Amino acid sequence: MTTNSLSRPTSSSAEPPGSGSRRRPATAMRRRTRPGRIAVYVVLAITALIIVVPLAWIFLTSFKTDFAAINAPGSPWPKPFVFDAYHTLSSGQQPIFRWFLNSLAAASLQTLIILVTASMGAYALARMEFRGKRIVFGVIVATLLVPPVIFLIPNYLIVQNLGWLDTLWAVSVPGAAGAFGIFFLRQFFVGLPTEIEEAARIDGAGDIRIFLQIVLPLSRPAIATLAVLSFLANWNDFLWPVYVLLSPDKLTLQPGLSVLQGAYSTHFGIVMAGAVIASIPVLIIFTLAQRQIVDSVASSGVKG
Amino acid sequence: MVANSALAPLVPRGTRPGGRGVHRKNATAYLFLAPFLILFCVFVLAPAVYGLWISLHIWNPLLPNQPFVGLENYTQLFTPGSLTSGDFWESMRATGIFTVASVPFLLVIPLLIAVLLNQKIRGGTVFRAIFFAPYVLGVAVIGVIWRYLLDPQLGVVNHLLGLFGLTSDVPWTVDVPWVWISLVAVTIWWTLGFNTVILLAGLQGINKELYDAASVDGAGAMRKFFSVTLPGLRPVLSFVTTVTILASANMFGQSYLITHGGPGHATRTAIMYIADEGLSQNQMGAASAMSYVLFALLAVVSLVNFRLQRDKSE
């Protein structure tokens, strides 16, 4: 894989045939020897180091003693290599593993709600003709451009009236109402070929069967991408949970990190261990689904 | 941004013409849409309207009643010396400073990296993944780790500067202008991969033959960049510019965690002030009015940006 051509799973964006870079060994060989190419690699490598070194440094700091984290910040290597910070976190007053489970539950529930509601709705928008379709779709798309702060205070009151403040529901249900998921899947469904569906319809299949047995299986890559993006977005959400979750055992990890920062203000090693714990699931997901995540972002601008 | 032909009717062949078939079709469609629409109405449409209603009241949930005051919350914001206007516009100023200081870097650096990645190089996908990686971490993680790395006394950055014989007491998180440099730099570090990936896809969509034609005409690398790359990238660049301006104008977590809005209230952004005023100080009416003023300003900025981009491409 020498080329970096993007394959786009969201095939609704029309990619002109042959736009992927073709490999031309002769030119590539000649070009690679030019000093310009070396400069390109040097700049990219330095940028990569600027990205990676702080992350690695934080990871290593979480294995330092409390004393070393503060008094010897200049050396990345933990000497001695200890699990003190993690031990303090697991035995301290801050229930970080509870937060971890809360985050896991909230992100999973929200992802599930988005997948079910968005796929059903997107099927109607992509495949059915009905009164008010243009208006419904127009309003959904228009809300994509509204800054989230508009919803902050009224949604706080709505969640309060539902009795959801300080519960899992507050951090999983309202966020599932966003327009992104249904818009994303609708664009994908529109790009699917209709022949199979038409054949099934002639054979007497109804909308529910066509949706469940044809459209959903064909859309597995798009649904998987949406699942990953939804899970990450919820896992990383910060402003909303800071204000709607109040009791220490109800927090998710992101507002929890802010609490840790206050509780261990100068015990940086402990806070860094918390940051590592909050990052591990996200980095695992990114490693496994790197291409889907990056490609879905890449195609967002080209489609526009 | 909405795709075009998709709205063209896709009437299934077997459908009977006439009233009952149409009614059934409408019913089926809305049944499929119902789960989403219920959520959407309760948590998106209703709050958008409810927020406007709240902004017309002195709305303090701790008080027994919420008196209607008309547009007073709005006029207060534009009356110098009122309770809210000073703090609000100070926070808007902070948001403005951050947006103006961050957006150019958030466009130029990713563009340069994307151009480099677009050369035929080995390991392009690996670089792309590395540059994107910080973006998948939440702002809370980014905030606490850089709060540590940039700590003026105990942090790594100052310590390393000292080791290199440079000044080791830069007030990264506690004094202007350093707080702005920190917030902008951290944001670039965190999000550069996002714009890079979009711009790279845009570059790969530019017709290769245009470059060949430019070469035939004797254009050098710089000339090609300005005559082929930039014009070809315009739609994508316009999208990225809008998204980046909106993201910067909505900055909250970095200030909240790295500078705590300080020194004083220098880095308290509009979002930070609105959330605090509405949800911590219980001034929900005033805070809702502020969120709509911010929304209106952002809409104007997006519109101006959109018009500028369109005029240029004509």
Account of the 3D structure:
The complex is a heterodimer of chains A (304) and B (314). With 304 residues, chain A is mainly alpha-helical. Chain A has helices at residues 25-32, 35-61, 66-71, 84-91, 96-127, 133-143, 149-161, 168-172, 180-191, 195-202, 207-218, 220-236, 239-244, 253-263, 268-288, 290-303. Chain A has 16 helices and no strands. In chain A, helix 10 packs antiparallel against helix 11. The relative contact order of chain A is 0.14. Chain B has a domain at 92-282: MetI-like fold (Orthogonal Bundle). Chain B has helices at residues 19-55, 72-77, 85-117, 124-132, 139-149, 156-163, 178-204, 208-216, 221-249, 253-259, 270-280, 284-313. Mean pLDDT of chain B is 88; it is low at 1-18. Classes of the chains: A mainly alpha (304), B mainly alpha (314).
Task: Tell me the total number of β-strands of chain A.
Answer: 0
Fraction in beta strands of chain A: under 5%
What order do the helices and strands of chain A follow?
HHHHHHHHHHHHHHHH
What kind of oligomer do you see?
Answer: heterodimer
Quick one: biggest sheet of chain B? none
Proper CATH architecture of the domain at 92-282 in chain B: Orthogonal Bundle
Q: Given the structure, what is the number of helices of chain B?
A: 12
Mean pLDDT of chain B: 88
> Which class do the helix and strand fractions of chain B yield?
mainly alpha
State the share of residues found in helices of chain B, binned by percent: 55-70%
CATH homologous superfamily of the largest domain in chain A? MetI-like
* Gap from first CA to last CA of chain B: 18 Å
Largest sheet of chain A: none
Q: Determine the structural class of chain A based on helices, strands and strand pairing.
A: mainly alpha
Can you give keywords for this protein?
heterodimer, A: 304 residues, mainly alpha, 2 domains, 69% helix, B: 314 residues, MetI-like fold, 12 helices, globular
